[in-house]
């Protein structure tokens, strides 16, 4: 009875709700959008619910609650039913054909809920013996899809000023709507990064490198001492996922792409918890030179995007230093990327490479080598808006208007006083 309920009732209910003609029923309501933007809400009495006057509003609320309840039930099924749920025949195929179908028609805030209340519990409570048969077939296409979706949305956000001309009045997309869309994309991005971290990075490592929880604009005030851990370890699930080439590629691309997205907190989390452990797992194999170039370039682009924040700059510089120091002896292409950095000194780069490629010459401490590397990539570190176009003014030392008289020495003062000075005292 339990298996029939899971396979028929919920699966068949989720599929039509995600249909293209049903998307209007899943759109965000005005109250929710106002709350996301931080607008004041009307006060309600205890146990009082907002009144939905029109039939359309009541229908939208009904289908929205039905959609969320289905994911809540599926999310609780794994922890509650254990083997009875995870041993359902063809569960991965059933989920891919119902819960994860037509994701393009689902709004961002619904996807955020789906990841939090359904996918995350499904993964964390899954027994290890079902990783290959259930989790890997689901997370592979899911991570690939989310990378494509988030990349497109962040590209639109970053290029919004280019896409909308200065003389064009965006009446159909007012400023508040743009703010709402950007906020929802940012929240979905953080949820995806949290899911990847929960799947791949061990809990002890994640807690050691955890970024302080911040809200709103406080994300700019992050700790500056948080740096990527060199002893980070992957979980058993993470090692299982990295064995599959498609999932491994999706994880690496998503983690390193988040460094260039306009979200400081996602960049900080990816830098300190994800990028190095994932990259270290595949360095023992054969990496393509183009892939290494892209990974290193993504870190430098992240510095250009988030270098104005001290917390991100410290972690990104440390990550770039780790990548260059580890992969430079094997891949000459990284040197070509370094040479493209503005205002880089070739002689200083040659000196750094000479010490790096000759271990016998590496007598400097790790901190000094890191400071040397930071000076090399200083040209790509982003600056705050108030300092980007500042012209440095150098004022030469002006001549003194009044020349101070030279003070007389004590011996000269004594000599100038009458007589022969001290010599006369000792005369017989």
Helix content: 55-70%
Cα-to-Cα separation, first versus last residue: 130 Å
Q: Would you list the SSEs in sequence order as H and E?
A: HHHHHHHHHHHHHHHHHHHH
Strand content: under 5%
The gross shape turns out to be elongated
Number of helices: 20
How many extended strands? 0
Q: Could you say which structural class the secondary elements and strand pairing correspond to?
A: mainly alpha
Question: What is the radius of gyration?
Answer: 31 Å
Low-pLDDT ranges = 213-225
The description of the largest β-sheet is: none
- Kindly report the average pLDDT value: 78
Word description of this protein:
- The protein is mostly helical and 428 residues long.
- Among the domains are: 92 residues, no CATH class; 156 residues, no CATH class.
- The chain is 60% helix and 0% strand.
- The chain contains 20 helices and no strands.
- Helix 7 runs antiparallel to helix 9.
- The longest helix is centred in the middle third of the chain and has 28 residues.
- The radius of gyration is 31 Å and the shape is elongated.
- The N and C termini lie far apart (130 Å).
- About 3% of the residues have low confidence.
């Amino acid at each position: 009875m339990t298996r029939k309920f899971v396979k028929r009732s919920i699966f068949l209910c989720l599929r039509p709700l995600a249909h293209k003609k049903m998307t209007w029923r899943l759109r965000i309501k005005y109250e929710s959008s106002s709350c996301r933007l931080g607008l004041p809400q009307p006060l309600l009495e205890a146990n009082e619910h907002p009144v939905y006057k029109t039939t359309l509003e009541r229908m939208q609320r009904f289908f929205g609650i039905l959609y969320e309840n289905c994911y809540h039930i599926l999310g609780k099924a794994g922890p509650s039913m254990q083997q009875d749920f995870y041993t359902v025949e063809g569960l991965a195929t059933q989920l891919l054909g119902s819960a994860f179908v037509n994701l393009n028609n689902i709004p961002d805030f619904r996807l955020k809920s789906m990841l939090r209340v359904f996918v995350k519990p499904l993964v964390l409570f899954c027994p290890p013996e079902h990783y290959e048969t259930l989790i890997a077939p689901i997370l592979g296409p899911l991570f690939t899809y989310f990378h494509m979706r988030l990349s497109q949305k962040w590209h639109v956000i970053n290029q919004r000023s280019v896409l909308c001309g200065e003389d064009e009045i965006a009446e159909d997309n007012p400023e508040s709507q743009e703010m709402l869309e950007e906020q929802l994309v940012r929240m979905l991005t953080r949820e995806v990064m949290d899911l990847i971290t929960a799947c791949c990075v061990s809990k002890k490592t994640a807690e050691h490198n955890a970024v302080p929880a911040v809200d709103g604009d406080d994300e700019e005030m992050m700790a500056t001492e948080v740096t990527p851990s060199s002893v980070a370890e992957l979980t058993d699930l993470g090692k299982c996922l990295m064995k599959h080439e498609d999932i491994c590629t999706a994880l690496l691309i998503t983690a390193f792409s988040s460094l260039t997205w306009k979200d400081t907190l996602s960049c900080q989390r990816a830098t300190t918890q994800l990028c190095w452990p994932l990259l270290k797992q595949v360095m023992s194999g054969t990496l393509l030179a183009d892939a290494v170039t892209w990974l290193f370039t993504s870190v430098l682009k992240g510095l250009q995007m988030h270098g104005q924040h001290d917390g991100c700059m410290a972690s990104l510089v440390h990550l770039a230093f780790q990548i260059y120091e580890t992969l430079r002896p094997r891949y000459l292409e990284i040197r070509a990327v370094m040479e493209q950095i503005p205002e880089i000194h070739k002689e200083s780069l040659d000196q750094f490479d000479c010490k790096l490629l000759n271990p016998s010459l590496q007598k400097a401490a790790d901190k000094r080598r890191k400071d040397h590397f930071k000076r090399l990539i200083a040209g790509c570190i982003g600056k705050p808006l108030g300092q980007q176009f500042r012209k440095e003014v150098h004022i030469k030392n002006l001549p003194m208007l009044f020349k101070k008289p030279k003070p007389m020495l004590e011996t000269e003062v004594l000599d100038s006083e009458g007589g022969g000075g001290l010599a006369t005292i000792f005369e017989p």
